[in-house]
Design brief:
The complex is a heterodimer of chains A (270) and B (127). With 270 residues, chain A is of the alpha/beta class. Chain A is built from eleven helices and ten strands. Chain A has helices spanning 3-17, 26-39, 45-54, 60-68, 80-96, 114-126, 144-152, 157-161, 166-172, 184-187, 221-234, and strands at residues 102-107, 134-141, 154-155, 173-176, 179-182, 190-194, 207-212, 235-243, 256-261, 264-269. In chain A, the strands form two sheets. A seven-stranded mixed beta sheet of chain A has the order 6-2-1-7-8-10-9. Chain A has a three-stranded antiparallel beta sheet with strand order 3-5-4. In chain A, strand 4 and strand 5 (179-182) form a beta hairpin. In chain A, helix 1 (3-17) crosses helix 3, helix 1 (3-17) packs across helix 4 and helix 2 (26-39) crosses helix 3. The longest helix of chain A is centred in the first third of the chain and has 17 residues, at 80-96. Chain A starts with a helix and ends with a strand. Chain B is 40% helix and 19% strand. Chain B contains five helices and five strands. A five-stranded parallel beta sheet of chain B has the order 2-1-3-4-5, sandwiched between helices. In chain B, helix 2 runs parallel beside helix 3 (60-69). The longest helix of chain B has 11 residues, at 10-20. Chain B starts with a strand and ends in a 10-residue tail after the last helix. Classes of the chains: A alpha/beta (270), B alpha/beta (127). Chains A and B meet through helix 8 and helix 9 of A and helix 4, strand 5 and helix 5 of B.
């Protein structure tokens, strides 16, 4: 695509989502926006972006930002964070919350739902006692399109092949033709809601666990700092924060203490 | 480290080899279950077997049962890599002693992820 068109998309995406696209991300813009341009009836991507540039604040802007929002994910992505949840974080919280019998968990960039559903399956499988607790998993994402898919709990064969242990597939999914759908008992554990991390946050309950993995990496430093500061306000004083493998609070927010559990980093408030 | 690839399709064996060999495994191949049992006997310290379901001579499920019936092979990890996607059949494979199940078609990251799940490879090797 033409450089000026790439720059326009880059600026649009940064303004709307704070996601920064480096120079070498031309391929990413092309691969994500080509299908959208075609769907909108344009012969080429450049023609599509030229139209965008002429129409100020077009309704297409939202679609462009949505298409550019990274949503690469899989069930039990990276494995280790889920091991840390199973072996240390959940047992500790279950002990600490024994009187209240309440847990609040937030997946802050839940994409197509694999992360919150992995967590729900893990809890059902290894902590059956939580079935009688008041447990709520809030899953939010910027993109309404991915949230719609997440809510359906419906995945194709490639998606359920990726990262999902076969016994879990058999136990927690029903086969629907070529697709597989999570059973209602798992789907009802999660509330999916749209939320843009860089806009004003709605009132959220105090969270025992926050997962915001592979999100900060796309933001500039002030935005990262702002998000970590806001998480500080919703995270329970003895709660746990999970970031992506390439992310850290280091040099961004010194109110968090990092520790390593099951070869994954977890963060707690000082 | 030894791995055994069992599939009657030479093309599929080649694909699986290209994914598993870079992990540091020395690879043996077999075209069906009987041949695979022979390969295992030659290398009883094989750590990983990737096995298809539908093959001549002895199919994958009978191979899995035969392996699990032999105390020498208790520690070998068995992964079925197959076009079978019927839940009942998958359940049979797991009941028979398969550790994991990969549905064809798959990508290399799917197979590597499954190997990570059953502890065959360290997480950092997944990239």
């Amino acid at each position: 695509m033409e450089l000026q068109n790439f720059n326009f998309v880059r600026e649009l995406v940064q303004t709307r989502s704070a996601i920064m696209l480096a120079d070498e991300k031309v391929y990413l813009v092309e691969s994500r926006l080509q299908p959208l341009a075609r769907r909108e009836g344009f012969a080429s991507l450049d023609e599509f972006v030229a139209k965008l540039r002429m129409a100020a604040n077009s309704s297409l802007y939202g679609k462009v930002v949505e298409a550019m929002t990274t949503n690469e994910t899989s069930f039990f992505r990276d494995v280790q964070p889920f091991e840390a949840l199973r072996k240390m974080v959940l047992p500790e919280l279950i002990t600490q919350r024994a009187a209240k019998r309440q847990l609040r968990i937030w997946c802050a960039a839940s994409s197509t739902g694999q992360e919150p559903y992995s967590l729900a399956m893990l809890m059902r499988e290894h902590f059956p006692q939580l079935a009688t607790w008041d447990v709520k998993i809030l899953a939010t994402d910027l993109s309404t399109q991915v949230l719609e898919k997440a809510r359906s709990g419906c995945y194709n064969q490639i998606e359920v092949n990726r990262g999902l242990p076969a016994p879990f597939l058999l136990k927690y999914f029903d086969r629907l033709g070529l697709n597989w759908q999570l059973k209602e008992t798992i789907r009802q554990m999660i509330e999916f809601r749209p939320m843009n991390l860089i806009e004003a946050w709605p009132t959220l309950p105090t969270m025992d666990i926050v997962l915001i993995r592979n999100v900060l990496i796309y933001f500039d430093v002030p935005t990262k700092k702002g998000i970590l500061a806001k998480i500080r306000r919703v995270l329970s004083p003895d709660g746990f924060l999970f970031l992506g493998g390439a992310e850290s609070t280091l040099n961004l927010d010194d109110s968090y203490v990092r520790s390593e559990v099951e070869r994954t980093s977890i963060y707690r408030l000082r | 480290m030894y791995a055994l690839i069992v599939d009657d399709s030479r093309a599929m064996r080649r694909i699986l080899r290209s994914i598993v060999e870079p992990l540091g495994f020395e690879i043996a191949e077999a075209g069906h279950g009987i041949e695979a049992l022979q390969r295992l006997e030659e290398r009883p310290d094989t750590e990983l077997v990737l096995v298809d379901w539908n093959m001549p001579e002895m199919n994958g499920i009978d191979f899995v049962k035969a392996v699990r019936a032999n105390p020498r092979y208790q520690n070998v990890k068995l992964v079925m890599v197959t076009t079978e996607t019927e839940p009942a059949k998958m359940a049979r494979a797991l009941m028979a002693g398969a550790d994991e199940f990969v549905m064809k078609p798959f990508t290399s990251d799917i197979l590597l992820g499954k190997l990570q799940l059953i502890g065959v490879m360290p997480p950092e090797a997944c990239g």
